[in-house]
Amino acid sequence: MLMHRYAKKAAIVCFIGATLGWVNYASAGVVIGSTRVIYRESKDEVTVKLTNNNSSPVLVQSWIDKGEKNISPEKLTVPFILTPPINRMDPGKGQTLRISYIGTPALPTDKESVYWLNVLEVPAKQKGVQDKSRLNIAFRTRIKIFYRPEGLSGNANTAPKDLVWKIRDGTLQVMNPTPYNVTLGMIYYKDNGKNHEIEGDMVISGGTQTYKFKDTAKVSNLSKLSYTAINDYGAFVKYNANDH
To answer: Which candidate, 124, 163, 94, places its Cα nearest to that of 24?
Structure first.
């Protein structure tokens, strides 16, 4: 489903026995209480609620990165402190993560900055299970953290409407002139009675992206273009490209 792109999960193999006679598949059971974190400059800290929906305890490791999803946590430098970085969660129990901005390195004051919260869930080993062919899987979930300075112009929830769409050689170009980062959902184009769509991505403040539909030769009319974007509450809102 599309939502999985915005609260991304990755399965990580923790242990593989010498002979894979069978595999024990599982799904992530630690749930993050939101699809994004909005950190306003006026706040001393923000909190994120985790819940363990598994029937067994898990070990949870949490950290923040700036898009370097393949770098180990100890090698990352970010202007935030997250506590607790590691904790055990019993089945059916919750845990609150606390995120504090420490100001080093200092973030821009004229636009949003975006970071990622990582939550890695490692299942507990079952007592008495000695089967070396067992495969244990850890699940990592990543959601965006938006650090929002005070006094920014405009409004984050209307920023998607202010995106500037243009046609360049039959392809779509979108520019974000706002101080907010806009996460697109789907982009839709109607052409000769046919509906075309493509997945969007995050357009950072001041950034530009180019899109091309695979099943149509070119885009020629912006009045036939619409798109969805995610607001602060994690909801998808639909817009028309030439509404502004």
So the answer is: 124
Cis peptide before 79 (omega within 30 of 0): no
Mean per-residue pLDDT of the chain? 86
Looking at domain 159-240, which CATH architecture does it have?
Answer: Sandwich (2.60)
DSSP letters along 53-64, please?
Answer: -SSS-EEEEEEE
The whole-angstrom separation of Cα 28 and Cα 124 is 13
The ranges of the chain annotated as CATH 2.60.40.10 are 2-148, 159-240
226 pLDDT more than 60? yes
Amino acid at 222: L
pLDDT tens-digit series, residues 203-219: 999 999 999 988 766 78
Task: Please check whether residue 91 is in contact with residue 55, taking contact to mean a CB–CB distance below 8 angstroms.
Answer: yes
CA 151 to CA 61: how far, in whole Å? 34
Highest CATH level, class, for 2-148: mainly beta
- Extract the tokens encoding 243: 């509404």
Helix and strand tally (H, E) in the chain? Answer: 0, 18
The full length of the chain comes to: 244
Q: Say if residue 22's pLDDT is above 70.
A: no
Give the global pTM.
Answer: 0.84
Which residues neighbour 35 within 8 Å (Cβ) at sequence distance 6 or greater? 3, 6, 7, 143, 230, 234
pLDDT digits (tens, 9 = 90+) for 59-107: 999 999 999 988 999 999 999 999 999 999 999 999 999 999 999 999 9
Cα–Cα distance for residue pair 142/120, rounded to 1 Å: 9
Report the C-alpha gap between 60 and 138 in whole angstroms: 10
